[in-house]
Amino acid sequence: MAHEPRQITFLGRDEQTKHYGIATQGPLPSPELAEATRALAEAGVPGFTIAHEGKAAAMALIYWWAEENELHRRAYAAPLPLGDAGELHALTDTGMACVWELEVIDFERRAWLDDVLIDDDVEAYLGRALEPVAV
After folding, report:
1. Which residues, including other chains, have CB under 8 Å from residue 60's CB and lie 6 or more apart?
2. Which of 68, 83, 114, 122 has its CA 20 to 30 A from that of 46?
3. Rounded to a whole number, what is the distance in angstroms from the first to the last CA of the chain?
4. H helix or E strand, kind and range, residue 70
5. Which residues, 6+ apart, have CB-to-CB distance to 44 below 8 Å?
């Protein structure tokens, strides 16, 4: 099996939520998936989302920090191409993340540890984002 890099891109921030996109084809996931993922974000708490357009499915991954050091997650998926947000359904499987999503999770974990747990600065955490990368 040949490795095919995927582009990971920071898609911006809404209040306390940072948004990332991962795409198999091209640099960005579809606008429909990116918007649907933003709409599912956990409001009022620091966190991040990943709109991941894979080979066979569209995934909306919602992460937020709770109890100071816990990362919580909700995950949704739909077949491609995604027509609208109503096609996303909650996942109940035991999967954690794919290798590309782990790149974002690792960055966010390190940022949370450095900026919030060590320096007690949520704004510094929210102002930091993973630079676009292909892995």
Report:
1. 33, 36, 37, 40, 49, 50, 51, 52, 75, 76, 77, 88
2. 83
3. 16
4. strand 70-79
5. 16
Report the pLDDT value the prediction gives residue 1, as an integer from 0 to 100.
Answer: 67
Cα separation, 85 vs 97, whole angstroms: 21
What tens digit of pLDDT does each residue of 7-31 get? Answer: 899 999 999 999 999 998 778 999 9
Q: pTM for the whole thing?
A: 0.93
Alpha carbon distance 24, 71 (integer Å): 26
Question: What residues in the chain have per-residue pLDDT under 50?
Answer: none
What is the residue type of 72? H
Alpha helices in 1-130 (DSSP H): 31-39, 99-111, 122-127
CA atoms within 13 A on the CB side of 111: 22
Q: List the one residue out of 41, 80, 83 whose CA is nearest residue 59.
A: 80
Cis bond before residue 29 (omega within 30° of 0): no
